[in-house]
Amino acid sequence: xxxxxxxxxxxxxxxxxxxxxxxACGSSTPPLTESExxxxxxxxxxxxxxxxxxxxxxxxxxxxxxxxxLVVNPANDSETSLSVDATILGDADTQLLHMTVDSKMQxxxxxSAHTVMYGQIDGDxxxxxxxxxxxxxxxxxxxxxxxxxxxxxxxxxxxDYLFNLQDVTVTSDKDSYTISGKISPDVLAELxxxxxxxxxxxxxxxxxxxxxxxxYQVFELTLDVSIDVSTEGESAHMTIEVGWVAQxxxxxxxxxxxxxxxAAGTARGTSSDDK
Length: 275
What we know:
Radius of gyration: 20 Å
Number of strands: 11
Distance between the termini: 61 Å
Largest sheet: 11 strands, antiparallel
Strand content: 35-45%
Order of helices and strands: HHEEEEEEHEEHEEEH
């Protein structure tokens, strides 16, 4: 029975990884200098206005690397880990996206997967071409329903944590600003209370973002979470590492290969010759 409960604990934790992107509560921060506070406010303001990659308004080329790693150590079971690495390219001229996702799970059940996708944006929808078990398929999907990174953690949602930071520090470099801080334990506890499945028994989370000095747009982010959780009498320690880097001034030229269009049974596509 302990193994059953621990397996349930692991399953619940895995299902809730993405929930870390959804918390946005009030916060209190220590005093910053006037200039540091201005930088912090400008970065938060810019984060609200735009994300590193906006699927619905691809108004500039984009190149984004995302990495997520989750490790769960149940008290009475073996360790389980899940890692997801994704690369997303966007071509503003052709409104095309190209995505590769590599995922790997290790533990009682170990498996890995490699996924390649292309997407043609058309208004509020996208024609999505995906390689499923060696066979290309196409479907039209709503942009609102997409999770293109293959992860439940969205870059834009992660920036909500800027509004939950404590012990904030702001440092300036030649062409960038770096903001670091701790996420309130109350925010983490509230997140799991809302889930209804897990209780948080203690932990910490730190967020670091780097923003361009001229545009104040965040182009790099890391989130490190270390917490103790429990459910139905079972407990575990969990760590989550999330990171993404957006290439500044990206220059991307994309086309959907003719072989992909043919295999998917459609003649629709845009080549680089049309640009």
